[in-house]
Amino acid sequence: MSADSNHHPQGSTTGDRGPRSLPLDRFNAFSDGVFAIAITLLVLEIAVPPEDVPLLAALRELWPEFLGYYISFAFIGGIWITHSGVTKLMKRGDPAAYALNLVLLLFVGLLPFTTTLMVTRLGGEDEGVAALLYGVDLLLASLVLSALIVYLAREPALLVDNIAEGTLGRVTRQRWASIGLNVVGIALALVAPQVAVALYLVVSTMLLIIPLLGLRRHRRESRAA
Amino acid sequence: MSADSNHHPQGSTTGDRGPRSLPLDRFNAFSDGVFAIAITLLVLEIAVPPEDVPLLAALRELWPEFLGYYISFAFIGGIWITHSGVTKLMKRGDPAAYALNLVLLLFVGLLPFTTTLMVTRLGGEDEGVAALLYGVDLLLASLVLSALIVYLAREPALLVDNIAEGTLGRVTRQRWASIGLNVVGIALALVAPQVAVALYLVVSTMLLIIPLLGLRRHRRESRAA
Amino acid sequence: MSADSNHHPQGSTTGDRGPRSLPLDRFNAFSDGVFAIAITLLVLEIAVPPEDVPLLAALRELWPEFLGYYISFAFIGGIWITHSGVTKLMKRGDPAAYALNLVLLLFVGLLPFTTTLMVTRLGGEDEGVAALLYGVDLLLASLVLSALIVYLAREPALLVDNIAEGTLGRVTRQRWASIGLNVVGIALALVAPQVAVALYLVVSTMLLIIPLLGLRRHRRESRAA
Amino acid sequence: MSADSNHHPQGSTTGDRGPRSLPLDRFNAFSDGVFAIAITLLVLEIAVPPEDVPLLAALRELWPEFLGYYISFAFIGGIWITHSGVTKLMKRGDPAAYALNLVLLLFVGLLPFTTTLMVTRLGGEDEGVAALLYGVDLLLASLVLSALIVYLAREPALLVDNIAEGTLGRVTRQRWASIGLNVVGIALALVAPQVAVALYLVVSTMLLIIPLLGLRRHRRESRAA
After folding, report:
1. Which end of chain C is more exposed for a tag (fewer CB within 10 A), N or C?
2. Residues D145, D189 contacting (CB under 8 angstroms)
3. CA-CA distance, B135 to B178, in Å (whole number)?
4. Max Cα separation, chain B?
5. Contacts with B138 from chain A: Cβ below 8 Å
6. In this complex, do D41 and A42 lie within 8 Å of one another by their Cβ atoms?
7. Quick one: which of D133, D145, D141 has its CA closest to D197?
8. Which residues of D touch A171 (CB under 8 A)?
């Protein structure tokens, strides 16, 4: 309605300036914007306790909110790292890559909502459903990111070179581990919701820790060489 | 008052560094920022249900909010895709392009408000007026985007080459279809508001789907060639 | 405390990679981010009317909020246009330019607050004080922007070439008109607050209109030449 | 879960396009986004006083909120300046730099929350705990920023040249002064909270003033030379 999809049925040009080509810098800047805003909005979900409540007691009761802030910050950050690793292999976008990216960001943009849902229900009657919804939101974002990567791997015209194609294939295969853990979290959510949340905590922490560990090994290898 | 328009009555230079020239990277970065924020603020309009309400029942009642999130995410995303396709043909901006862009973003920035208005009134007495206002906001954004494209098509000094001029003319003509659907939505809003919302849903979904379909055909063509 | 100012007393290098040099792309990206967020937060200040209030009546009562949205959108947009026109003449930043820019953004960041203050008090007892505070916030932003421009004009090492120096001097002089109108608005605020608001409305509209008018003349000139 | 860490145990390539390499532009754009949003969200913590309260009296009572806005704006701005000065020495990122940066931004993203906590409790029973938490948040951000700098100084493959390594070492040593002041603030928080807040005020002001003073000396030196 207010926009068309820049779709040209007659167009078959694949050059960088062809009608189907869309710029990579806009793709990246818009994505970075949404990632940054979603990650920063998370803090708005932690309500500042009213002034007449003793502070330490109030903060103790806010622990689920802090947990949610931490977990979702790490997950969105992890998606952002993967996304950056993928776009460095691209030289331009096209309407399909843009549209897949929008669907990815749609699910990322919901995370502040599903995070708050999960942590405010923790320990309550509906904690299972809430932990399930959080896991499903995460899984959908993850699957769309994989779809984007698979799509790019099949469109050499969008990539910087032929090696990029193989690298993307490898990234896609490695992602099955994290998608598998995500499915386990969803399965646990209904039978043992707090175990599911603990799993989210462990996996999100791994997303921040592994890059640091990986690097120490890398440095040992460099010294050995 | 707090700013002038960088307007130089005596200036007639059209070079890239002339007084009327404004940089394209700032034009893009600011636009991407506003698009990203408007699209991410949409989630703040979905109120997290209070803890004492059964979760599934509460979520069922929130369906209009989710619908609004989806529709406006897709519309703003569609405007962003078109905007990116247009700016890839530019080599620089000028005060008029900057000002038109600001007016476009003014209407985009209102969409989180008009979206919430439309979905919270859905099924109520004023649903017609609310659906109308949403359609009008969308139409104004769409018309200003077309005005920006028409303006650019007439200013070769802002474009990368002569082919860009023709491409912009084609984009403008293709946009009449989406503007027409938008007008139909507005006309329906007062007589059959829920049909208008359904139309918004269909059109916004098309904005995400068409780029993906278009691509499959494109690939078949590539193979055939 | 949590950061130092990257200040090196012993440093006197002025090369692009010297210790005092700071990158222009970060300067621009951060500024565009704050401008974009401040301009988009404005819409959050328009409260969606509750569902049991007739919509049209509720919207009529919201006219001051829409007015504030429009005026501040145009003012922030105008500052952004000037800021872009200035940074296109820069080749890099330094700690002083970064610090001046931060103070500018501090006052821009307050505009959503002072805007809401002004429009919610309109017609009430304190409308004069509120219109005054709005004008003062705008004036401080404007003066710091001028200070940044004056500073840059005296630091050729930060500029792309010698012509830039002269251009910045001209921009500074032209800005006195808008600063003068701003002072008139502040003076009017206490004696005739609604006239002050009307002046803000006229000036902010001019910020959007002048670039478009200026361009028509420019095109006539081009044809004549 | 929803993302992997782009971690390749078998990878030991250090080239710019190797599997461990991550782009600098995404690193910067995302960081600028989070800094810009955190700094602009601060204004949302200043509640607009209700319309039936006399304005000047209401604003007088809001002075702690304005103080918090100012202090945190300056601290986040100072971190941003240091961060920009560091990334100008980088030519690319890697998963560890990305992960350290995420942890830095996690603590920066909490500042709007801890700021409001500190200023709303000022003068109350819990002002000590609140000032302590603010100082701890700031200290953690500061230490992680130092960790990032130390890490970069040891990874020449990420830097533009060999001089960058030495510059980063110097920056790290200079940062101990600000970290020391931060620790003093934390120590004071429990015994004399208002002195701690006054110290935050002085240090944050220095972050904005020193770059400007430093520059005047620099100019005198230039003239003398």
Report:
1. C
2. no
3. 12
4. 68
5. 1-2
6. no
7. D133
8. 4, 6
Q: What is the pLDDT of residue D3?
A: 39
Nearest-by-Cβ selection for C96 from D167, D177, D215 = D215
CB B151 within 8 A of CB B90: no
Q: Exposed e or buried b for every residue in A71-96, given b needs 16+ CB within 10 A?
A: bbbbbbbbbbbbbbbbbbbbebbbbb
Q: How far is CA C56 from the centre of its chain?
A: 33
Based on DSSP, count helices (H) and strands (E) in chain C, helices before strands. Answer: 7, 0
The helices-and-strands tally (H runs, E runs) of chain B is: 7, 0
Distance of CA C36 to the CA centre of its chain: 12
Nearest CA in chain C to D111: C2
Please check whether residue A160 is in contact with residue A89, taking contact to mean a CB–CB distance below 8 angstroms. yes
Going from the C-alpha of D218 to that of each of C20, C93, C168, D138, D166, the distances in angstroms are 10, 15, 22, 30, 22
Intra-chain end-to-end CA distance of chain B, in Å:
60
DSSP B16: T
Tokens of C117: 């203050």
Chains that touch B (3 or more CB pairs under 8 A): A, C
Amino acid letter, A84: S
Q: Which amino acid is at A165?
A: E
| DSSP classification of residue C17 | T
CA–CA dist C112, C126 (Å, integer): 18
Structure confidence at residue A62 (pLDDT): 94
Residue of chain A whose Cα is closest to the Cα of D34 = A36
Residue whose pair of structure tokens reads 């049209």 in the numeric block: C56
Count the Cβ atoms, other than its own, within 10 Å of residue D25: 18
Residue among B165, B106, B176 nearest B137 (CA): B106
* Euclidean distance between CA atoms C6 and C22, whole angstroms: 9
Residues in chain A closer than 8 A to D6 (CB atoms) = 81-82, 85, 171, 211
Does position C117 have pLDDT exceeding 90, yes or no?
yes
Q: What angle do CA D107, D110, D111 make, to 5 degrees?
A: 95
* Residue A172 pLDDT exceeds 70: yes
Chains adjacent to D (≥3 CB pairs closer than 8 angstroms): A, C
Q: Residue C40 is which amino acid?
A: T
Do A43 and D112 form a contact (C-beta atoms < 8 A)? yes
Beta bridge partners of residue D93, listed in sequence order: D22
CA dihedral B76, B82, B85, B90 (to 10 degrees): -90
Structure-token pair, residue D50 = 């209700």
Q: What is the average per-residue pLDDT within A173-179?
A: 86
**A170 neighbourhood in chain D, CB within 8 Å:** 8, 19
Give the predicted TM-score (pTM) of the model: 0.90
Give the residue-averaged pLDDT of B44-58.
91
pLDDT band at D99 (very low <50, low <70, confident <90, very high): very high
pLDDT of residue A171: 85
Q: Which of C2, C17, C109 sits opposite D178 (nearest CB)?
A: C2
| Tokens coding A203 | 């996996």
Helix/strand/coil (H/E/C) assignment for every residue in B91-122: CCECHHHHHHHHHHHHHHHHHHHHHHHHHHHC
Sign of CA dihedral B169, B175, B177, B183: negative
pLDDT higher at D19 or B131: B131
Write the burial class of residue A51 (CB in 10 Å: 0-12 exposed, 13-18 middle, 19+ buried). middle
Nearest CA in chain A to D148: A212
